[in-house]
Fold each of these.
Amino acid sequence: MKQQLGTMLTAAVLLYAPLAWSQTSDTSSSQTSSSNSSPGLFTNSGPTGWTDSPQNGSSDSGQSDSGQSGSGDQSQSGASGPQDTFSHPEQLPALNLFSDVVSRTGISLTTSVGTLAQHVTGEGPNTWEALSSFNGGLTMAQIRPMLTWSLGYIGGVNLTSGISNYNYTNLNQAAYANIKWNFAKRWQMRIKDNYFYSDDPFQPFFTYLGQPTPNNPNPVVYYPQAVIEQNQATADLTYQLGPHDVLNFEGVEGFQRYLRSTVSSLWNSVTYSGSAFYQHEFSQRLAAGGGYQFAALDFGHGSSRAGVQTFQGFITYVFSSRLQVSGWIGPQQTSTKDIVPVFCYQFGCFYAIQHQQTWSVAQGGTVRWKATTRDLFGLDFSHGVSNGGGILGAATIYQATLTYSRPVSRLWSFGMGLYYVDSNSISSFRNPEFLKSITGTLGFSRKLFDSDAWSLNAYYAFIHQSENYTGLPDVISTSGLGFTIRYSWDHGFGR
């Protein structure tokens, strides 16, 4: 468990640092993002230097048929035997056929090296550990007037060294794909897929995937002690009814698997969800709407199942160029089915099937406040029933995130973040199991060599966690000091 929380700290901080300390002039978000919801505190997605905004460049180039008209028939009628292709260039497509595709395509290469000295308490004697991380990533993207896509991969090796002369290495990797297609005047489709794998059995950490929204009110995942494989695919369809009205439909499928786990009580899980929402923009300051969301959760291949229906209303108001507030609320119905062992003996077990149905109120909100031209605050919070991972099953989750960022100078910037989560299982034979944690990070980042390609992050981070589930201590804490150096090379083809 010492290594477990150590690697948790490293993974969370290294993934958070480039986001929390990036600066932006956007008054509605503390993170740099091209979507409506800003990136969250911790994320597994690989870094990319490409956005979804259209590029200024060459437009679609038309090809004339005059240079090729009739050439195909003439060459075939008068040719005998093998022909040298390069002696007949008029039979080939013009090279500028590919100029438009090339000019709109780019590649981004990233690499980072980091180290962390941490102190772990809560299980046995206190101990110090050194954690080193080496990562590299590749991203390709193409931006066209009607279609945008990007593909990315990031992989790395972590090395953990303890003062008791133990050392071990592990591999983690992630890949993602993102497609946005405006296939009609008022229609837009977005498809996203994120894959994550780690062969480190001591890597549990919280992942805050994004701010709470009506479509995703509980964006939190917990990775317990296991080798982990996870994938989430999302299809989003948006229809613009008019200048101020929008319909949105979304479907999500995901799985989470624990391979070669040392904890017998872990559950593999599969999640399906769908939603439909309507939004109306009353003015440039006020927008509101509502909708419906359904989620089907399956744990342990039918050992525990839950269906969660939520009816939501939401509102967004821009008080000024420096303050924006949004919130959502609605009734939530949760139906669970659990196969519970009554008693077991040498020949097997007797099971009972238990059904439960409850009603509750789910809510959440966001605040973005630019106190001055330099000081930017962000607050996200939510409460509702969602996926508690393989250790809790369906759970009631309370969570809140607070972020602050400020540029200190042209090269230096400061950032901090606090994340709190309180998860309580509602599955019949896991109740009253729970997991509570508070995580904090603060530090400085600096551009190296007066270039955007090179950056240095120096930070302090801590985790304080209490839990009540099989095989882990009640309370454990860790804190450490570390730094990361990152290099990103971005290049557009055809330039």
Amino acid sequence: MKRVIGLVVLLLANMMLLAQTADDYRESANQGDVVSQTMLGACYYYGESVEQDYKQAVYWWTKAADQDFAYAQYLMANCYYSGEGVTQDFERAAFWWTKAAEQGHVESQMNLGQCYYNGVGVKQDFGQSAYWYTKAAELGNAASQLTIGDFYYHGKGVTQDLGRAVYWYTKSAEQDVVDAQYKLGKCYYNGKGVAQNSERAVFWWTKAANQGDADAQYNLGVCYYYGDGVAQDNEKAALWWTKAANQGKAEAKEALRKLERH
């Protein structure tokens, strides 16, 4: 099933390059082929070789979803969530995301985690939110890894465990999620969930700073100014503070003023 889902994702991503038209999918779709039903629905959704028609998209995705095709279930949930082709219905969105999530569809797991966190379409339940975010995180979803890291850091929906927070922040940071890199740097700098290590803090803050994170840029400037975790260097301190200040970071502006006075 996962290989079939991967095929559908690939086909949808390259839809404009396909030789097939809606009519090419229609016969096999009418015979119950879930991939063809999903692709025909996509043709209607994007207006590819047919007039755009969200209701027809939903019609065909429902056919595939009713046969437990996870990707079609995910698409159905999206339609109910946004009200495209159907009346907006958060409960139905959560219903279909649950169906897909139970089959291991990672985006559905993440979306379902958000539904439980915010109480949208389901009763608010931080434990269930953590459960589904963990499922997605274990499948490598970087955004979910960051989120479940936050859950462990703050004890939201799970027993607080700073070590587990660092574990998940690291997974996410290694996939270049800037917030995870910044938070992991803070954990190393403050010795939260991991042995205090200013050099590792500088390493991760540099990653985040190079992606434009103002807080990381400011903290990196502080490290260079005091020689904490890195060789002391006022020029590099000024460089990073300037970058942060240009994004409106008030502490960076004040740090630059103090540096200029000295």
Amino acid sequence: MNKSRMLKIYFYTFGISNILTSFLVPVFFGETLLWSPRNLATDLMVGSLYLAMGIVMIRVASSPFKHKAFVDFVVVSSILHTIVMIVLAQKPSHVFVDAGYMAAMGIIPLLLYPWPLAKFLKYDRTTEA
């Protein structure tokens, strides 16, 4: 299977997963996966971010190579989120489940997207209008 097809599968899989996470985690896994103290406003805020990212991931899945800026955002935000979650983890499930999920979401595109790592996040001034 080529990397393009794998990247499309990645975006569909994590997009759907993020949408489901925004609804199902607070309802079914609240005490295990969510952070304490529980706060409805925080749960809704984080859930809305996962929901938005999931929707955009599904839209990008059909042509991921046209959306490098979004792929960059997914990589950087997911890796930074992972680091913060590991440092501030309150329970082992935060490290192994939450941070593991976020790490996978950030690292997989690095392996599949066709960029040299040395040029990752390099701003190309030649494309300005």
Amino acid sequence: MPLTLASFAGGGQQNGPFATVVSAAQNVASGNSIVVGGRWLTTACTDNAGNTYIPLGHLVGNPVSNAGEGFDYWYCNNCIGNAALVVTLTFNSNHAQSLDTYTSIAVWNISGGPLILDQYLMSTGNSGSTLTFGPFAPRYPNSIICLTAIATSNLATFSANAPLTQDGGTSLGGVQIASASHLISSTIAGAQPLVMNASVSGTWEIGGPIFGAGPIPLPTKKRIERFGAAQFTGREYAYYITLERLL
């Protein structure tokens, strides 16, 4: 089945420092995939359903600016469901920027998986308010990209240009330094840039993973053949029977 965004939950805090950041609750069905993006370095990703998350590593663009905090991403396939799933990211206490005044978390609940990591990309800029990601070319005909964007201005709000779909409004949990968006792709033809806009010019970063899903399996046939001989009213004859059915 094609990949579908079943729901999204963001979260964020201001006036830190903080040791963790927690998402809003969302209804997640068992067997779905969960993708989690957070601002800066994290050491653990947990939830209230007991799922195990795989770390994808740290994306950082410009390390000398506030936007150089970058993102951490985690994901889980074939998850344990929960009617009010809450995800928690724990920050790396050895890095001062991990305990920043502003935090954010983005959680995508995706059906149609399991997800296969395709690419992990980031774009950066030093001026202007147009945040451009890509162009990119997914290698799977059925794919999803989960993007997080941040800007150096703490009061920046965000908007996404088509074909991106913005998730969670113009910011994450009211923290107007980060925003999330996604794109589901059903074709690998042609690379295209993805654009978001910030209300205030400044240094920015936008990035995230691209996941693919395997092709939809076609039904297969099972062929049953029978050969034999029989006798009816004193006469012998041979027979051949073929049966086919879809599995």
